[in-house]
Amino acid sequence: MPISISQLEAAARRSSSYTLLDSVNEALAANKQTAFLCHSHKDEKLAEGLQVLLAENGWSLYIDWQDHEMPPQPNKITAFKIKNKIEQLDWFLFLATPNSSASRWCPWEIGIADTKKSHERIVIIPTTDNSGNWYGNEYLQLYNQIDFAQAGKLAKFPAGQTTGGTFVQNLR
Fold it and tell me: Taken in order 109, 115, 119, 121, is the CA torsion positive or negative?
């Protein structure tokens, strides 16, 4: 069952009860999974909601605009830092929304991930709106995805499947 935009917005409202931006070293020391989030900056609340959902499953999600070491305006240093984070963190997650489909950065970021990460470590988070419309470009269907399993927990599923998933909290 895909994650709805309204579920991400609801999770974002719970964000004050979590320490959301652990440093990568803190996350690794605590044996948490780390992930880079590819998303549109227009989807700030949705990104925060996903961060909460993943924190509830023991993951630390890196969001570039929360990183105080990023330049205030995107430039080549931004691109260099993003490329390094994609390589450094355990997973690459792509939040598929209407905004990320139109982004200039998101296709570049998934292209970097596709050359630097194993296929198993690249995961799409498809979203749906209240009408059930699915978001994401055709090429995103090549990758595994994270959805809600029937048990109501987040799970990673093989590309194009809704069964045979692994709960996110169990991924290593």
Answer: negative
